[in-house]
């Protein structure tokens, strides 16, 4: 049995026994980078390099190996010599406490540390790196990547539950590609193991196995973002899908935080040209002002009944949010915006403020999500393939 088949069987095993949370999850790391070579450093524990079910070489703690791709083969250069693997290599630690670091010769991307093991797979264009990591250690790493290392533990508990819920609900998102999730915001940001905050480790352990479910005991879509701008959004304003637990509401906890307000100025000529290209006809002297007292879905100006999605404008102009007003001037339009992110679900800065004010993680989750419950994943209707 080859390693590729073993990986597939491992994934099936994860799906069938996931509720125990003792299994590993497979995360593609450096997913946005084209990787031709890397340096694998054994920070803690010994590592074996396994290809075709055989150990081809090993390195001890404190040692490193350079891994490169040439002609669809993987070359491993260690102090004992050069070794090869065909298209798939497993770098396996001798304990569950092993830690490794991935470095690059040109210092980009920046080096990162990870728990447990690493799969290296070669393709026509690059190496694919997959961290085979304990599920709860992964959650701690995501919480630190998403929320930083200086918040209150109540916030970390809430964030851990959301990250765990997301990972459980979408664990098969990239299964056809040979892993569960990626490390980019397409899934969840994962910049390596939790390194800087004991509070995150404590929060993850304290909430082990806990997830958020809706009224039907199904895992929710655990959406979150930086700042609501003082008002969260209904899901249908962003994704054209009404979800019962993702309801908009006033959010005083996000007001005044770091990403609460923003401002962007665009030359009037550029803005007029953009609107016309989008089929939004305007007169040369039109008043292009736009007011949004509460979150809405479309741009609607007094001079025109045409509709343009605010999510489209945000994407095209790389704005921080869709929660903005426009001040029309002779030579420019000025966007006065609030919030950072899509606005659906939990505002991270708002949740951090709630934690600072003494609210519990349960209070935080029940504030940002409507009619939800916290449950152990072993009691959830888990096998609902998305």
Spell out the key features of this protein.
alpha+beta, 6-stranded antiparallel beta sheet
Describe it:
With 386 residues, this protein is α+β, with helices and mostly antiparallel strands. Among the domains are: 3-134, no CATH class; 261-338, no CATH class. The chain has 9 helices and 22 strands. The protein has helices at residues 3-17, 135-147, 153-169, 198-206, 236-239, 268-277, 310-317, 348-356, 361-368; strands spanning 24-29, 37-44, 47-51, 54-59, 64-70, 73-78, 81-85, 88-93, 99-103, 112-115, 117-122, 127-134, 181-182, 210-213, 224-225, 261-267, 298-299, 308-309, 324-328, 332-338, 346-347, 373-376. The strands form 6 sheets. Strands 4-3-8-11-12-1-13 form a 7-stranded mixed sheet. It has a 6-stranded antiparallel sheet with strand order 7-6-5-2-9-10, with no helix packed on it. Strands 16-20-19 form a 3-stranded antiparallel sheet. Strand 3 (47-51) and strand 4 form a beta hairpin. The two termini are 30 Å apart.
């Amino acid at each position: 049995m080859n390693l590729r088949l073993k990986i597939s069987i491992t994934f099936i095993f994860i799906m069938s026994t996931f509720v125990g949370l003792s299994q590993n999850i497979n995360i593609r790391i450096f997913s946005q980078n084209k990787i031709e070579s890397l340096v694998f450093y054994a920070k803690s524990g010994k590592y074996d390099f396994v290809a075709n079910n055989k150990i081809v070489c090993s390195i001890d703690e404190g040692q490193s190996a350079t891994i490169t791709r040439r002609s669809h083969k993987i070359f491993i250069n260690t102090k004992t010599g050069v070794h090869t693997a065909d298209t798939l290599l497993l770098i396996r630690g001798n304990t569950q406490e092993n830690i490794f670091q991935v470095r690059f010769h040109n210092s980009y991307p920046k080096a990162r540390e990870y728990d447990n093991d690493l799969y290296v797979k070669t393709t026509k264009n690059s190496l694919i790196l997959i961290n085979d990591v304990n599920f709860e250690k992964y959650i701690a790493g995501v919480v630190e990547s998403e929320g930083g290392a200086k918040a209150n533990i109540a916030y970390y508990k809430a964030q851990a539950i959301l990250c765990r819920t997301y990972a459980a609900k979408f664990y098969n998102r990239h299964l056809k590609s040979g892993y569960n999730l990626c490390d980019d915001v397409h899934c969840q940001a994962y910049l390596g193991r939790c390194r800087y905050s004991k509070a995150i480790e404590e929060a993850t352990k304290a909430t082990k196995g806990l997830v958020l479910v809706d009224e039907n005991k199904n895992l929710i879509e655990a959406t979150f973002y930086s700042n609501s701008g003082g008002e969260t959004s209904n899901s249908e304003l962003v994704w054209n899908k009404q979800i019962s637990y993702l309801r908009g509401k006033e959010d005083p906890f996000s007001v005044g935080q770091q990403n609460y307000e923003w401002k962007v100025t665009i030359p009037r000529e550029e803005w007029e040209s953009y609107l016309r290209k989008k089929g939004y006809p305007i007169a040369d002297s039109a008043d292009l002002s736009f007011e949004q007292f509460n979150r809405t879905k479309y741009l609607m100006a007094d001079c025109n009944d045409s509709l343009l999605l605010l999510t489209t404008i945000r994407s095209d102009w790389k704005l921080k949010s869709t929660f903005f007003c426009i001040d029309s001037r002779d030579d420019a339009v000025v966007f006065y915006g609030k919030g950072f992110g899509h606005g659906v679900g939990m505002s991270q800065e708002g949740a951090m403020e709630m934690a600072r004010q003494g609210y519990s993680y349960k209070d935080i989750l029940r504030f940002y999500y409507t009619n939800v419950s916290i449950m152990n994943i072993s009691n959830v209707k888990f096998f609902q393939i998305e």
